[in-house]
Design a protein that fits this description.
Blueprint: H1 2-16, H2 40-53, H3 74-78, H4 101-105, H5 128-139
Helix pairs in contact: 2-5
Length: 145
């Protein structure tokens, strides 16, 4: 019973941050290329800033589900950090994107994250190229570079 209540509260919290105004540009104004060897500061953080923090959900002020993805905070909040929405997955498990909650939350396949909506909530989904760049970063060990 507790797990159901926590899940429902978490789902409602996720919905509360969104303004539901999606940009016309599906890239969110970011590059739409796969980066084979991405750097966190150059390739990953801009996605978090533009698609997750500027939407108002994962800022220092709002920190939905305890997650801040603003510059200077996101790496420590993600890598080797337990997810508050999953008892099984780390937010980012270096070297293993399929067992990283971040990857699951960005997927359109609802079975990968039962009860939770696809992120980013307040914008269009990341493009396949943007998502692959995040996968490449995680699978390379999620370096802080």
């Amino acid at each position: 019973m507790t797990m159901v209540v926590v899940g429902a509260v978490g789902a409602l919290t996720l919905w509360a941050c969104a303004d539901f105004t999606s940009p016309v540009d599906p890239t969110g104004g970011l590059p739409d290329v796969v980066v084979a060897n991405p750097m966190f500061e150059r390739d990953i953080q801009p996605m978090f800033t533009k698609r997750c923090a500027q939407g108002g959900c994962h800022t220092v002020a709002s920190a939905q589900v305890g997650l801040v993805l603003a510059e200077g905070y996101s790496y420590d909040a993600l890598v080797n950090h337990a997810s508050s929405l999953s008892d099984v997955y780390q937010r980012v498990l270096p070297g293993d994107h399929t067992n990283s909650w971040l990857w699951r939350m960005l997927q359109s396949d609802q079975s990968l994250r039962p009860t939770y909506p696809e992120m980013p909530l307040a914008a269009q989904p990341l493009t396949g190229n943007q998502l692959q760049t995040i996968v490449n970063w995680i699978d390379e060990g999620a370096p802080r570079n």
